[in-house]
Structure formats: structure tokens, C-alpha cells
């Protein structure tokens, strides 16, 4: 079994405990076997599942957890038996990375439901006994059967969310024949899953109605996504106006809610499919019995449909709406994800913000936003994986970053120096000064935050001793 310590050939970001706080972590990927491909990860989407397993919401997290199952990248090595891929191919990896490929379910394109148990992309026991680690990392090794070709013209950053968010709604829409032009589809919720449902629905030629409890979603639904109708689901009059008008409903809402108001919108023999995982959903059986309705559930699909979905999106120019972030922003992204503050999917730019450091975790370090319950000193204390690296750190508001002493910020014209002062506006200032920020100024015009000069100066001129490296 490969050692799972703080050393290894791959650099990722891991949660060490149920706090879910992620920080740099080195671990070993297995050697490329005859049936494997090695993928240089360029982008990875951020799914609610990444947050839930990082914080042990399901009670089965195996720490350290390296999340990430919406993975896009470039093939960098192939095994001797692999002829489906070549070096340089654009590929993706989704929610699972292996199955028996021999049971009835696997033989019917339902590998995720493998009777012997599919191996999940992270937090699962792999064939060699190690714990799988996901796409919040520089590269991965995977059996070629669970690697999917991303069409060359399709940008990798947009492909990543398709491997979970896209597939999660595409699969039940195809299974339940929701691709019949002219049929009417209702979409509950307008987040990462919901907005992809609208996009697929329009591509299939459906009349799409967005059902939301939030009136502010109306313009997004109609103008940005092109839905045909928006209904405020908390407005009884609006809901009554579309009673028994929908052929299908996809329910993407992750909070507890009753199904009864939505079942009344279905035509006779209509279908509602639940693709999210709220804690509890209630309904009156009589609403199903009288309407001859079907309530179904669905998760991700098998290999065949995954490739079909990727090809369909490329052929029909279907792209998720994403917010691209650097790796060091992931803890803030988790906070925003929990608050449902994202339109509509975070995608981590692994290639730029993590892979540029290779596997040199000793030189990569992370900082949390200083505006926390513990203030700026906590920001200093939360720097991780730095061994003997002199640094000077200043942070404000919600900025979080990592920079290497001796280097400029990526894309910056600031010349390299042996120290970097990180400011809340994201611009490194070289050297150090006493007093307030940038030589005596107080506050930050960009974020409106004011800090006491003494508080700033305490950190501006201090070469703080690096913390001890965290193992596991």
C-alpha cells in the first residue's frame, strides 16, 4: 500500500478533519498500470458532495479527504494496453473510477450501481487497498474505461461540471424520455443542477418552466437561461394557474420541502424525478394515486451515457455557467456554496493555481481570509505546509491567497523579491514598511475595511516562524 503521509508524488488539497478546512497535502498516486491513463488535471468543479464529505456529513469520511469528482485534464501517460487515448488528449473523470464490469448492472450501462460496489473517485477503497483521492490535485491515475474523451473544441473549464452536475440531470431526462420536443418540463430550483436542466430542456425542444421560492431568480431564468416561464412556488395563485400542465418535473432542490404542491402540477401519468438529496421530503400518497404519477430518483449515469452527454453538449453548444476560482479560494467557495451564493458552479483552475508548483508542497502555502472570528493573527496561524520559508503576510476582508517568496503573483508584472507582502486587493507589494498598509495608509478603499496601524505593523515587519508541517 502506498504511504499516505505528508510526502508523495502528487500535490493536492485535503481536509484533515470534520471542520472541512482544506490545505496543501502531498500523497502518492499509484504507478501507471497497463490499463491506466495518467491525467494532468487542469480544472475541477466544486460540487456540494465535495463539501459534504469534507465535513463528514455522511459519517463515513476517511481523512485526509482530497475531494473533487468533476475532473478535466490532459492525458500525460498511457499504459501498454490502452489504445483509446494518446498523450495530449483532452479527457474527463466523473464520480466513480472503477467497477466490476461483469455484473448485470455494469453490463447495462449502470456501472455506478455495480452489484459489487463502484469505486468512488475519492473517499473510497481502491483496488490496491489505498483510499481514492479526487481532483483537487495536480494529476491522477485512472483505469482507462472510466476516462472520457472531451471533444477538442469544448473548453476544459466548462467540461468539468458536466461530469457530475450535467450528467446528474441529463441521465434521468433521457431515461424518462424528456427529450420529446413540445413536452412541458418543470424545474424546481435554479442552482448548479437546475440551470443545466433548463439548458438541456431547451436543447431538447421542451417548454420549460422554472419553479422557485426566490423571486430574484426570475430574470436569471427567463433572460439568462431562456426558460419559457417562471413561477414563484410560494404563490398559491401562480401555482394553481399551471395545475396539471407539466409532463415532467426535475427536482433539484437540496433543502427539505413537500412534494405535494408540485405533484399537483403534473399531468396524468406525469413523472417527477428527484436528483438532489434533502434530508426529508413529504407527500400525500393520494396525489400520486389519483394522478397515476411516478416519483423517481436518479444519480449519475454509466460510462456510455457519460460519453454521450459530453458529445451532445459539444455538438449543441451547451455550456454550464461557471465561476472560475484559484485553488486557494476553495475554503471561501465552500462557505459560499453552503450559502448558495454561486452562479452556478465553481470550477477550480488547477493548472494555473496549483499545478504551476509541480509537487513542491514545501513551497506552496495557503492562507485563510483574515476577517475571521480570530482576526488577522488567525490568518498567520492558519498558514500550512511551509517549512523554513520566510514570509510577510497581510490580508483583509475576504481575500485569500498563496504566494511563494521570491515569486510574483501569477500574471503580475511585479519583479520577484525574497519576500512577498500579500494585500487584500490581491496585489503583492514588494518589501515591507512600518505603519499602515502601503507605507502608512489606513484602510482599504476597495473593501471598505479599516485596520489599526499597530495591528498591521505587527505583521508587516515580522518574519514569523513557519508552523510545523501537518501530517495526514
From TrEMBL:
Residues 20-348 form the Enoyl reductase (ER) domain. Keywords: Metal-binding, Oxidoreductase, Zinc. The keyword Metal-binding applies. Pfam families: ADH_N, ADH_zinc_N, NmrA. Residues 446-457 have a biased composition (Acidic residues). CDD domains: CAD1. InterPro entries: ADH-like_C, ADH-like_N, ADH_Zn_CS, CAD-like, ER, GroES-like_sf, NAD(P)-bd_dom_sf, NmrA-like. GO terms for molecular function: oxidoreductase activity, acting on the CH-OH group of donors, NAD or NADP as acceptor; zinc ion binding. The keyword Zinc applies. Its cofactor is Zn(2+). SMART domains: PKS_ER (SM00829). Residues 414-472 are annotated as: Disordered. Belongs to the zinc-containing alcohol dehydrogenase family. This is Enoyl reductase (ER) domain-containing protein.
Amino acid at each position: 500500500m502506498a504511504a499516505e503521509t505528508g510526502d508523495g508524488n502528487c500535490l493536492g488539497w485535503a481536509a484533515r478533519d470534520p471542520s472541512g478546512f482544506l490545505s496543501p497535502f502531498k500523497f502518492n498516486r499509484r504507478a501507471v498500470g497497463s490499463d491506466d491513463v495518467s491525467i494532468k488535471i487542469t480544472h475541477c468543479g466544486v460540487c456540494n458532495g465535495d463539501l459534504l464529505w469534507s465535513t463528514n456529513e455522511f459519517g463515513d469520511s476517511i481523512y485526509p479527504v482530497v475531494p473533487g469528482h468533476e475532473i478535466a485534464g490532459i492525458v500525460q501517460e498511457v499504459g501498454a494496453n490502452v489504445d483509446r487515448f494518446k498523450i495530449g488528449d483532452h479527457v474527463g473523470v466523473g464520480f466513480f473510477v472503477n467497477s466490476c464490469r461483469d455484473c448485470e448492472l455494469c453490463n447495462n450501462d449502470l456501472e455506478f450501481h455495480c452489484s459489487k460496489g463502484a469505486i468512488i473517485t475519492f473517499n473510497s477503497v481502491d483496488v490496491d487497498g489505498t483510499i481514492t483521492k479526487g481532483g483537487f490535485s495536480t494529476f491522477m491515475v485512472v483505469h482507462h474505461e472510466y476516462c472520457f474523451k472531451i471533444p477538442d473544441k469544448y473548453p476544459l473549464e466548462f467540461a468539468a461540471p458536466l461530469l457530475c452536475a450535467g450528467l446528474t440531470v441529463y441521465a434521468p431526462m433521457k431515461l424518462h424520455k424528456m427529450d420529446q420536443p413540445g413536452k412541458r418540463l418543470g424545474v424546481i430550483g435554479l442552482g448548479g443542477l437546475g440551470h443545466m436542466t433548463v439548458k438541456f430542456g431547451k436543447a431538447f425542444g421542451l417548454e420549460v418552466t422554472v419553479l422557485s421560492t426566490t423571486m430574484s431568480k426570475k430574470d436569471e431564468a427567463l433572460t439568462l437561461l431562456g426558460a419559457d416561464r417562471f413561477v414563484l412556488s410560494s404563490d398559491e395563485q401562480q401555482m394553481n394557474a399551471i395545475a396539471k400542465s407539466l409532463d415532467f418535473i426535475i427536482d433539484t432542490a437540496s433543502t427539505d420541502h413537500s412534494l405535494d404542491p408540485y405533484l399537483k402540477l403534473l399531468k396524468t401519468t406525469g413523472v417527477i424525478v428527484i436528483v438532489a438529496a434533502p434530508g426529508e421530503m413529504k407527500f400525500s400518497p393520494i396525489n400520486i394515486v389519483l394522478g397515476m404519477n411516478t416519483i423517481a430518483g436518479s444519480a449519475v449515469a454509466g460510462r456510455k451515457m457519460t460519453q454521450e452527454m459530453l458529445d451532445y453538449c459539444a455538438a449543441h453548444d451547451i455550456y454550464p455557467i461557471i465561476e472560475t476560482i484559484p485553488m486557494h479560494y476553495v475554503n471561501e467557495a465552500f462557505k459560499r456554496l453552503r450559502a448558495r451564493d454561486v452562479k452556478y458552479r465553481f470550477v477550480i483552475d488547477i493548472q494555473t493555481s496549483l499545478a504551476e508548483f509541480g509537487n513542491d508542497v514545501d513551497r506552496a502555502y495557503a492562507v485563510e481570509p483574515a476577517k475571521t472570528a480570530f482576526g488577522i493573527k488567525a490568518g498567520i496561524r492558519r498558514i500550512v505546509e511551509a517549512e523554513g520559508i520566510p514570509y510577510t503576510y497581510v490580508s483583509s476582508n475576504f481575500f485569500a491567497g498563496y504566494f511563494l517568496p521570491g515569486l510574483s503573483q501569477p500574471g503580475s508584472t511585479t519583479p520577484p523579491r525574497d519576500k512577498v507582502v500579500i494585500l487584500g486587493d490581491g496585489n503583492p507589494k514588494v518589501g515591507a514598511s512600518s505603519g499602515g498598509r502601503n507605507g502608512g495608509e489606513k484602510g482599504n478603499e476597495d473593501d471598505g475595511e479599516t485596520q489599526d496601524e499597530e495591528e498591521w505593523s505587527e505583521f508587516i515587519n515580522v518574519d514569523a516562524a513557519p508552523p510545523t508541517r501537518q501530517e495526514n
